[in-house]
Amino acid sequence: MIYGNVNNKMIEQQIAVLPAPLQSAIRFLRDTDLASHDPGKFDLELDGVPMILQVLDLATAPRETLRPEIHRKNIDVQFLAAGGPERAGYYSDDGTSQVDEDLLDTPRDILFYHNNQSVAEGTIEMTVGTYAVYFPWDVHIPAIQTGPASAPIRKIVIKVPMDACLGGE
Alpha carbon 38 to chain centroid distance? Predict the structure, then answer.
């Protein structure tokens, strides 16, 4: 997992170590007004790499009501464009979590795990401009509320094909 903010003065140095498709996705998030973009799912091509752009209007929710998720074909670049704050949980997929719903072989490329109280789960705080990059081995739980009440968020997800970051297409 990688975590940062597009408004950081050192953003170009930070993303320089990433594969080119991830650099393109983060620059797109920095340079595009997605807070006023229409919600929905869109095809996106950045520097010749086909990606999927999801613009989601959500509300944060208590952690216990959310399911951990993972993807295998795509890297998720998640970005908070407006609203919040939001907390995101994460942990490394060690293969021991119990599957709740497997949709990996569908266009959604998603697998949900049952919540497991014994997993050492970390959290990050997402404020406007913050991004998190989740690789296929990073279980993540987005849209966790940070206080006693839910908050509206404009969540952007760019699905970057894992193969494009490995040099294959």
Answer: 19
Per-residue DSSP letter, 119 = S
Q: Give per-residue pLDDT as tens, 66-114.
A: 999 999 999 999 999 999 999 999 999 999 999 999 999 998 999 999 9
Closest CA to 38 of 56, 60, 58, 59: 56
pLDDT at 153 over 60: yes
Q: Give the model's pLDDT for residue 160.
A: 98
User: Two tokens at 100?
Assistant: 């709740």
Determine the pLDDT at residue 88.
Answer: 98
Q: Are 145 and 87 in contact (CB under 8 A)?
A: yes
165, 21 Cβ separation under 8 angstroms: yes
User: What single string gives the DSSP state of each residue in 24-78?
Assistant: HHHHHHHHS--SSSPPEEEEEEETTEEEEEEEEEEE-B-GGGS--EE-SSEEEEE
Buried b (16+ CB within 10 A) or exposed e, 14-41: bbeebbebbbbbbbbbbeeebeeeeeee
- C-beta of residue 91 within 8 angstroms of C-beta of residue 141: no
